[in-house]
Design a protein that fits this description.
heterotrimer; A: 272 residues; mainly alpha; MetI-like fold; 13 helices; B: 359 residues; alpha+beta; Rossmann fold; OB fold (Dihydrolipoamide Acetyltransferase, E2P); 6-stranded mixed β-sheet; 5-stranded antiparallel β-sheet; 33% strand
């Protein structure tokens, strides 16, 4: 241990010992980042009406409550459906746009890119009320379709950014090689380019799913009735009182997003 | 694949401009059937643009490209049926060696059994028989090069295009591959257009060389002619080492620094310069005779380079000229010391005259 | 030289080739059109509509009343003040916490960095609502923090950590920190070690090397990260709504109130337009200082 403290920690020959303060500060920050979400998980298994940590008595009470509530289950299904459909809409649209803008030497290309990026620059509340206003006129409020297209435009910039970055580091000569060997542009893209950027496309798809699944504000305005999303119901419940059922739902959501994160990291690993 | 199948390429008036810059400036070029033709030029000269226009990846502004009798300038790349080897090989890393080579056959819907045979034969042709199951990542640079070649020839294209295919290899391997490519071309006989900026590579491999600069064809000739009879100053400078001596025209004769030049024939026209290659000069020791031009000068520097010794000599008009003495004249150069006066000899048959242009 | 064709004949196919070239460009650009059309129909046109609405009075005539009210009303001034205060404080705290963390991550060996990076990525991928909820649970008056603080003797009475500015800031910093750390980490990793070696070689100690070489080179990443955080804060809604408990009203919350409580579309639209203008103004000003693509591409 003492040896380690004296060993150089960087090229500038600063030692680990001199850096201890940095390690301490960083560790505290990392704990602060992760702890709140982790602590919710054991709390959700508490039998008490008040959330306790550590729980004095363990129980699945709040999970039972969640699973036996048709409102929560319906909302979960709506969220899963919306997430899945958003993924199915945003991913192909985004990939096609990223590819088209990458290879087209059209002067409008840059402009199109900026238009497609705007949904992450415009405040979500504005997108939400604008979509709500229009959806009211064309009777799309509370419909799954309306929710999905609104979520899709939120996911599109992410898909575009992730896939464009992948295309930038991809060697376009390969597509040219395929075309010289007799493949049309489409065949070359499907057979040669797509398999090589598949990890980025998958990451983009996962991000699209999460964008919709975790989204609150648009869902709050645009979804409702039979098509209320999980996040919408959670948000409304949070404003009223601290319902321990939400701890159990949160735990489930944390498990889902951690799984997706690990999946994306595994894709990233196999890329090396 | 027999030599009769090869196609000639006929390029005329081919032009491609980017803004006011011409990448190709009304290029006319005939590639003979079965010929190994090299496009040689510095980077940015337009040689790659020309190759990409042949492959269909660069669309020219106007002009014509014909493969045999067929005009293909508007034809998309995948219908042109030319084999192409890319600079960085552009092998598909997610496919095995065999799958890479089989790719053009799959696109042409060649039956699997037949394709497997063709793939194996192509791999044997490039001396990679039995490598089919390897992953691309497991191959060395030279092996990748061979796979790229196998992939480009497996479907028996009648034209083969290569874009600086050897530039990523180290020197020894590159020289070995040059000879191999040359043999392969003799065996397969397809019309081959090869792009390089390496003059030695061009001289080694080509039937003819097309020297390109500023999007224009400078000279189209056999390697020996290109080296020994460069058409202009650019070519003489780009290929091999040269010193240029400005000549004066007096009557029907040419003078350098007041001394008349022995020339086989004096071309008509503008002012002329004499192109002198270092290895064509000899240091005279009084025994030489015949139609030889003599340039007196003072030795400025001597550089030992292993296989040769280089002497820099300052001539009467102040020009520094390089003299390369190989083994045969080693004895003569050994006697020379810096600061001494020497006489340099140039045979009249080695006199190369080019039009004088101000740079 | 070979070939003889030249002159007018050789230019015969110029128009054809030019047409073909543009057809190809349009076709490839066309691949982006479904996405662009979706964004236009679902976002650009509706937002444009709101823009139009913001200039209509309640009886449907053109008026600037909604904007006038914003200028005159003290309540609106307070909302904008709160929004900027929260955004500045959040961004500042994120910089203070995020810089050491990003520096720490950038100095780790590859494997350890990937592992520690998970602590940044996990919150990044976890629902914002879930994280806000977690803080609500921890910070409430009978929550874990108060319980521990009192039992450890750090403070005596239950502190009001939530339903106020403190709670809002804690929650927002937690949510925004990854947005700062990720681009900053990227720019720190891009700093070549050769510069640091050269600095040491020229006689600078580790501290001097850090402040003279490393820190200035990491500034573009810090700037990009801070910009993202600030702009996201301006439009934030969920965390102030839940952790602010009605006491922290930012622009987004007021927009929601205008619609849900007062059904006042004109006022909500005007507020939204101002929020958008501020956001885009800041982004535009920032991109004049920094490459746009770098900011947009930095998050991932």
């Amino acid at each position: 241990m003492t040896n380690w403290l004296k060993r150089p920690a960087s090229e500038t020959q600063i030692t680990h010992g001199q850096r201890l303060w940095l390690y301490f500060v960083a560790t505290v920050i990392m704990i602060l980042l992760v702890a709140p979400t982790i602590i919710v998980m054991p709390m959700s298994f508490s039998a008490s009406q008040y959330l306790e940590f550590p729980p004095r008595e363990w129980s699945l009470r709040w999970y039972e409550h969640y699973l036996s509530s048709p409102a929560w289950i319906d909302a979960t299904w709506t969220s899963l459906k919306a997430g899945f459909l958003t993924m199915c809409v945003a991913t192909p649209l985004g990939v096609a746009a990223a590819y088209g803008l990458h290879v087209s030497r059209h002067p409008l290309g840059q402009f199109f890119y900026i238009v497609l990026i705007t949904p992450i620059m415009v405040p979500v509340i504005l997108i939400a009320i604008a979509a709500f206003y229009v959806f009211v006129q064309i009777r799309l409020v509370n419909s799954l379709f309306g929710l999905v297209i609104a979520h899709s435009i939120l996911a599109l910039p992410l898909v575009l950014i992730v896939v464009s970055a992948a295309l930038k580091s991809y060697d376009m000569n390969q597509e040219m090689a395929a075309r010289s060997l007799g493949a049309s542009r489409f065949t070359a893209f499907i057979g040669i380019t797509l398999p090589q950027i598949r990890f980025s496309v998958l990451t983009a798809a996962l991000l699209s799913f999460l964008t919709s699944f975790d989204e609150v504000i648009v869902a709050m305005f645009v979804s409702g009735g039979d098509n209320s999303t999980l996040t919408r119901n959670m948000f409304n419940a949070l404003r009223d009182q601290i319902d321990p059922t939400i701890a159990s739902i949160s735990t489930i959501m944390i498990v889902i997003s951690s799984t997706l994160l690990i999946l994306s990291q595994l894709f990233g690993k196999s890329r090396d | 694949m027999s030599k009769q199948d090869a196609l000639p390429i006929s390029i005329s008036g081919l032009t491609k401009s980017y803004g006011s810059l011409f990448a190709l400036d009304h290029v006319d070029l005939e590639v003979k059937s079965g010929e190994f033709l090299t496009l040689l030029g510095p980077s940015g000269s337009g040689k790659t643009t020309l190759l990409m226009a042949l492959a269909g990846f660069t669309r020219p502004d106007h002009g014509s490209i014909r493969f045999g009798d067929e005009e293909i300038v508007t034809m998309p790349p995948h219908k042109r049926g030319v084999g192409m080897v890319f600079q960085n090989y552009a092998l598909f890393p997610h496919m095995s060696v065999a799958a890479n080579v089989a790719y053009p056959l799959k696109l042409r819907k060649v039956p699997k059994a037949e394709a497997a045979g063709l793939v194996e034969r192509a791999l044997e042709t490039v001396q990679l028989g039995g490598y089919g199951e390897r992953r691309i990542g497991q191959l060395s640079g030279g092996q990748k090069q061979r796979v790229a070649l196998a992939r480009a020839i497996v479907f028996s294209p009648r034209i083969l295009l290569m874009d600086e295919p050897l530039s990523a290899l180290d020197k020894n391997l590159r020289e070995q591959m040059q000879i191999e490519l040359r043999h392969l071309h003799e065996k397969l006989g397809m019309t081959t257009v090869y792009v390089t900026h390496d003059q030695r590579e061009a001289l080694t491999m080509s039937d003819r060389i097309a020297v390109i600069n500023h999007g224009r064809l400078m000279q189209l000739d056999a390697p020996r002619r290109i080296y020994e009879r460069p058409a202009n100053r650019f070519i003489a400078e780009f290929i091999g080492e040269s010193t240029f001596l400005k000549l004066e025209r007096k009557g029907g004769r040419l003078n350098f620094a007041g001394v008349e030049l022995e020339v086989d024939e004096v071309p008509e026209g503008r002012n002329l310069s004499l192109v002198v290659r270092p290895e064509r000069l000899t240091i005279l020791d009084g025994t030489d005779a015949g139609k030889t031009n003599i340039f007196p000068g003072t030795v400025k520097d001597l550089v030992y380079q292993g296989d040769t010794t280089l002497a820099y000599v300052t001539l009467a008009d102040g020009t520094d000229i390089a003299v390369r003495a190989g083994m045969r004249s080693e004895a003569a150069i050994e006697k020379v010391k810096v600061g001494e006066r020497v006489a340099l000899g140039l045979k009249s048959a080695d006199v190369v005259l080019i039009p004088d242009e101000e740079r | 030289m070979a070939g003889t064709a030249s002159g007018a004949g050789a230019r015969a196919n110029e128009a054809l080739l030019n047409r073909q070239d543009w057809q190809e460009r349009w076709a490839l650009l066309g691949l982006a059109s479904p996405a662009v059309l979706t964004v236009l129909i679902v976002m650009v046109i509706p937002v444009g509509w709101l823009f139009y609405l913001s200039f209509l009075s309640d009886d449907g005539n053109f008026s600037l009343e909604h904007y006038d009210r914003m200028l005159e009303s003290k309540a609106y001034a307070r909302i904008f003040w709160t929004t900027f205060k929260v955004s500045f404080l959040t961004t500042g705290i994120c910089i203070l916490l995020g810089y050491p963390l990003a520096y720490f991550l950038s100095q780790l060996p590859k494997r350890a960095a990937a592992l520690c990076m998970l602590t940044v990525l996990l919150p990044f991928w976890t629902s914002l609502l879930v994280r806000t909820y977690a803080w609500l649970v921890l910070l409430q008056s009978k929550g874990l923090i108060n319980e521990w603080g009192i039992s450890l003797g750090l403070w005596e009475e239950q502190l009001a950590l939530v339903h106020n500015l403190t709670g809002t800031l804690i929650g927002m910093v937690h949510i925004m920190l990854p947005f700062l750390v990720l681009p900053l980490y990227g720019s720190m990793k891009a700093i070549s070690e050769d510069y640091l070696k050269a600095s040491s070689n020229l006689g600078a100690g580790p501290v001097q090397t850090f402040w003279n070489i490393f820190f200035p080179l990491s500034l573009p990443g810090l700037f990009a990260g801070a910009l993202i955080v600030f702009v996201l804060c301006l439009g934030f809604f969920v965390t102030p709504a839940v952790l602010g408990g009605g006491k922290v009203i930012m622009v987004s919350n007021q927009i929601t109130n205008n619609i849900e409580l007062f059904f006042n579309w004109g006022a909500a639209s005007a507020l939204g337009v101002v929020l958008l203008a501020i956001t885009l103004g800041i982004l535009f000003a920032a991109t004049r200082l920094l490459n746009l693509n770098r900011i947009l591409g930095a998050g991932h």
